[in-house]
Amino acid sequence: MTDRALVVVRAGALTTVQDRGRTGHAHLGVPRSGALDPPAAALVNRLAGNSPDAAVLETTLDGCAVRARSTVTVAVGGAPCPVAVGGRPAPWGAPVRVPAGEVLQVGAAVAGVRSYVAVSGGVAVDPVLGSRSTDLLSGLGPAPLTDGTVLPLGPPGAPPARVDLAPQPAPPAELVLRITLGPREDWFTPRALGDLTTRAYRVSPASNRIGLRTEGPALERARAGELPSEGMVLGAVQVPPDGLPLVFLADHPTTGGYPVPAVVHPADLSAAAQARPGTPLRFVPVRRR
Fold first, then answer.
1. Mean pLDDT of 195-202
2. Contact 87, 67 (CB under 8 A)
3. How confident is the model at residue 157 (pLDDT cuts 50, 70, 90)?
4. Burial readout 32-43 (b: 16 or more C-beta within 10 A, e: otherwise)
5. For residue 256, what pLDDT is reported?
6. CB contact at 8 A, 186 and 239
7. Alpha helix (H) residue ranges in 20-122
8. d(CA 42, CA 50)
9. How far is CA 33 from CA 147, 164, 196, 237, in A?
10. What is the structure's pLDDT at 165?
């Protein structure tokens, strides 16, 4: 039994292991997965002295709690939340020392959805297809955490970053997603495309790591029937039969048969990962280059 490990005391609603994802396997039907908010995951890794590709914990809304078997440095970022070590308040967004045997408590997000926990050495579960990420769609990678799960840690790398507090973007009060129209905008009426780019939507509570679902005006189709399945990309805005746009996130399927009238700019997807249900949402068209 290794001393360099975390023991899950409270798993929370959904806590998974994530890194930068398993890219390059879409032709095998394998999504990329990985942290939904990559900048937040990269920042906590840097604060903890890890390489950018080290695996972290991604929590959902209500945090988690883990016990350290050996003294480690941790950093918590992403969605702002209370942090405690051994029952005593600790800083969010900065390196924190957790002595052996103490419990790190990551509380419920006070804004946003997903907090990230980096531990010195990174979470060292066995990689699958080059990644340690949990993929909720395909089932690849480690299962979502449960109470009592033991997570091995890698050897510590660089010393923790020397900062008092690292600025991080606030979760969006309004989610603005830039989109490029296509490839299937011709499957929708001009009125529907106008609704998509001018009407207000909201983030649906049915959103998850596979996709951000919306509430708002349904988009009217110009064509009946369905497409043959075709490749789907990260950020694709797919419209299922209910007419409500769905933005594909990291665990999205690699193919689909519903039409895609637009694709979200990749830089806007981190904010989508932190948008709570009910958050106002606008799709803003940008010109193709």
1. 97
2. no
3. confident
4. bbbbbbbebbbb
5. 93
6. no
7. 38-48
8. 9
9. 23, 31, 27, 17
10. 66
- 151 has which bridge partners? 6
Residues 43 and 13 sit within 8 Å (Cβ to Cβ): no
pLDDT band of residue 2 (cuts 50, 70, 90) is low
Tokens read off for 185: 């905008």
For residue 160, the model assigns a pLDDT of: 83
Residue 33 CB contacts under 8 Å (≥ 6 apart), including other chains: 18, 21, 22, 131, 133, 134, 135, 140, 141, 250, 251
DSSP annotation of 260 reads -
Q: Using alpha carbons, select from 162, 155, 161, 140 the residue that is nearest to residue 54.
A: 155
Mean local confidence (pLDDT), 12-30 = 93
- The pLDDT of residue 289 is 60
H/E run at residue 26: none
Is pLDDT above 80 for 247? yes
- As a whole number of angstroms, the distance between CA 153 and CA 9 comes to 16
Which tokens in the block code for residue 210?
A: 């596979």
Burial of 28 (0-12, 13-18, 19+ CB in 10 A): exposed
Backbone angles phi, psi at 278, to 5 degrees: 90, -10
3-class SS letters over 270-288: HHHHCCCCCCEEEEEECCC
Q: Which pLDDT tens digit goes with each residue over 99-119?
A: 999 999 999 999 999 999 999
